[in-house]
Specification:
GO molecular function: protein serine/threonine kinase activity
Number of helices: 11
CATH superfamily of the largest domain: P-loop containing nucleotide triphosphate hydrolases
Strand content: 15-25%
Mean pLDDT: 89
Number of domains: 2
Organism: Actinomadura barringtoniae
Shape: elongated
Strand order of the largest sheet: 3-2-4-5-1-6-7
Radius of gyration: 22 Å
Low-confidence stretches: 312-324
Domain MEDS: 6-150
Keywords: Kinase, Serine/threonine-protein kinase, Transferase
Protein name: Sensor histidine kinase
Structural class: alpha/beta
Number of strands: 12
C-alpha cells in the first residue's frame, strides 16, 4: 500500500489542545500498522500514555532533547527508517515536538531549516509527521513553523498553510544574515597547496589548546578536510583557514575567492543511494551541528562551529591556555 507524505504543524494552547490533535494521529497509526513514534517532553508523554491506554503500548516514546540533538544526524536517521519501512509497504509516523528552549539562536535556525528540508527529503517515503508547537513559544518560532509545514492541524482536520514557503527558498533565507566579523585574535593559515597532512596538523594543534574532546577533534579534522577539498574543487585561490574561540564554541572558517554554484548542493540532503559515493558537505553537516555557508561577492566562506564542554560563557582562549 502506498501512502502520501504529510508534514503538519499542530499549534496548541494547553494540554487539552495538544491531546486533541496528537491522540487521533497516534491512534490512526497504530490501527494502520505503522511504526509509531512520539517525541516529546516527559509531562506530555505521561498525558499521552494515560489517554491512549492500550494504544500507548504500540507507540515508541523518546525525549525531545535526546531526539533533537543534531540536525543532520536526526534527519539522516529518520530518513533511513522511513525509506526502509516504505520499501516494506509500511509507514513511519512521527509525532515530533522539537526542543526549542535553551538553544542558541544559530541552533534554532538550523532546526527550522531542517523542518523545511523535511518536505523535500521525505517526499517519496510516505511518512506522516505531525509537529506540535506550543503557542507560548517565541512568536518567531511559531511563525517559522507555518512557513515550513504545508498544513496546519485544527481539531480533526488539516488545512493548507497560506504562508508555507518552498523549502529551498526558506533555506536560502536562513543564509541571508551576514556572518559575524572574524575577531582580531583569530589564527590564520593560508592554504597554497593541497597538503592535507599539514592542514590537519595545524587544526589539531590549535584545537588541542581547547577543551574539545578527542572524538570531536577527529570529526573536525574530517570536516575541515572536506571543506578545503570543496574549496579547491569549486572555489578559487587564495584559500585561507582561520580558527578562533567564541563563548563556549570553537570556530573554524575556510574562505576562498570563488563563488560555489548550486551544483555543490550545500550538503542539505544526503546523496542519492544510486548516485556516486560523494558525501562532501553532507558529511560536514553530519560531523558539525552548525555549518554556515555564504557565497557571493567573489568569495565563499564556510564556518564550522563546535560546542566546547564546561566552558563558561565569555572565557577567552588565552584564559583556557593559562596565558596572561
Amino acid at each position: 500500500m502506498s501512502h502520501s507524505f504529510t508534514h503538519r504543524v499542530l499549534p496548541y494552547d494547553g494540554m487539552d489542545e495538544f491531546l486533541a490533535g496528537s491522540v487521533p494521529f497516534l491512534r490512526a497509526g497504530v490501527e494502520a500498522g505503522d511504526r509509531v513514534v512520539a517525541v516529546t517532553g516527559l509531562g506530555s508523554e505521561l498525558a499521552l500514555r494515560e489517554v491512549l491506554g492500550g494504544y500507548g503500548d504500540e507507540v515508541e516514546f523518546f525525549e525531545s532533547s535526546d531526539w533533537y540533538s543534531h540536525p543532520a544526524r536526526t534527519l539522516a536517521d529518520c530518513l533511513s527508517d522511513a525509506g526502509a519501512l516504505c520499501g516494506r509497504g509500511r509507514r513511519l509516523r512521527i509525532l515530533g515536538e522539537p526542543a526549542w528552549t535553551a538553544r542558541p539562536d544559530l541552533e534554532v535556525l538550523e532546526w527550522q531549516r531542517v523542518e523545511a528540508i523535511v518536505n523535500v527529503a521525505f517526499a517519496d517515503t510516505g511518512a506522516a509527521i505531525l509537529c506540535p508547537y506550543a503557542k507560548t513559544l517565541p512568536p518567531g518560532v511559531v511563525a517559522a513553523a507555518r512557513r515550513t509545514h504545508p498544513e496546519t492541524v485544527r481539531g480533526n482536520t488539516a488545512v493548507q498553510n497560506p504562508s508555507y514557503m518552498n523549502p529551498w527558498t526558506y533555506s536560502a533565507q536562513c543564509d541571508r544574515t551576514p556572518l559575524s566579523p572574524v575577531p582580531d585574535h583569530a589564527e590564520k593559515l593560508p592554504i597554497e597547496r593541497p597538503d592535507l597532512f599539514w592542514l590537519r596538523a595545524w587544526v589539531s594543534d590549535y584545537a588541542k589548546r581547547t577543551p574539545l574532546p578527542e572524538e570531536e577533534l577527529q570529526r573536525l579534522l574530517v570536516a575541515v578536510t572536506e571543506v578545503v577539498t570543496n574549496s579547491m574543487r569549486h572555489g578559487a585561490p587564495p584559500i585561507v583557514l582561520r580558527m578562533w574561540m567564541e563563548p563556549a564554541e570553537l570556530v573554524c572558517e575556510v574562505v576562498d575567492h570563488g563563488e560555489w554554484g548550486a551544483d555543490t548542493g550545500f550538503g542539505l540532503l544526503p546523496p542519492p543511494a544510486d548516485g556516486p559515493a560523494r558525501f562532501g558537505l553532507w558529511a560536514v553537516r553530519l560531523l558539525c551541528a552548525i555549518v554556515q555557508i555564504r557565497t557571493g561577492g567573489g568569495r565563499t566562506a564556510v564556518r564550522l562551529r563546535l560546542r566546547l564542554p564546561n566552558v563558561p560563557t565569555g572565557v577567552p582562549l588565552r584564559a583556557i591556555e593559562g596565558g596572561a
